[in-house]
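Help needed: design a sequence for this.
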């Protein structure tokens, strides 16, 4: 994940949400943060067309596609963190 973030490569992941529904997502990872007792991947989701928070414990499979991001200007991770309802 860190390699994909630093190289600005797309990641494909199989993700299971809180309702146990699985989906395949292609995302542009912008960072990893630890909060609420878990690690989270913050990424631009191509399926939802918005930034999403993926709990790492819910990722069943992950693949660095080696393909460059398509979105050119991502919000800084610190800006996303300021939107969260927790203090760091």
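Sure. Designed sequence:
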């Amino acid at each position: 994940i860190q390699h994909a973030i630093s190289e600005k490569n797309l990641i494909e992941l199989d993700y299971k949400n809180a309702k146990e529904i699985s989906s395949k997502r292609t995302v542009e990872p912008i960072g990893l943060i630890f909060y609420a007792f878990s690690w989270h991947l913050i990424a631009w989701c191509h399926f939802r067309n918005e930034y999403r928070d993926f709990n790492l414990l819910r990722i069943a499979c992950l693949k660095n596609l080696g393909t460059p991001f398509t979105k050119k200007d991502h919000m800084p991770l610190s800006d996303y963190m300021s939107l969260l309802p927790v203090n760091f």
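The CA atoms of residues 30 and 75 lie 8 Å apart.
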